[in-house]
Amino acid sequence: MPKISAIVHTRNDAPRLGRLLETLRPCDQVLIIDDSTDDSVQKVAHEYGAALRKCISGVTPGAYAMDAIHEWILCVLPNESLSEGLEASLFSWKEGEPKREDLFAMTIREEKEGQWSELSSEVRLINRRCVNWTGMMPPNLEGAFVLPGHLLRFDHP
């Protein structure tokens, strides 16, 4: 059974972080990379059992995948949450035998000024031993499988 490490990059995101962490139940590890926060991110991370690392100047965001315990990495933003459907999809995914080279995308639903819109899918679940990336998110490579459910992106905390 594959295990998932979630990686979240934060900077003064304590007001929205708890909402995300509550939905990461399918993940076996949550790793928060904090970039000079001056709010209570550390306290929120501790309350939810997430591991916290300080961002190191000059290290690209994608390099922190090597700090994760598990090979499968789920990349999420602090203003996002997994829908119930996406949580269920990830639990089902864990029961399967994904190939290391498989890529998995998630459809984004974004809130803007109280209105919801559906955006295109983005690769968010990837095996770190097969793809390296430098930005916050892995590249949107061809051939990704889209998991049922939505990644919800909120406008306000």
TrEMBL record:
In Swiss-Prot or TrEMBL terms, this protein is called Glycosyltransferase 2-like domain-containing protein
Q: Which organism is it from?
A: Koribacter versatilis (strain Ellin345)
Q: What is the lineage of its organism?
A: Bacteria, Pseudomonadati, Acidobacteriota, Terriglobia, Terriglobales
Matching SUPFAM superfamilies: Nucleotide-diphospho-sugar transferases
Look up the domain of life of the source. Bacteria
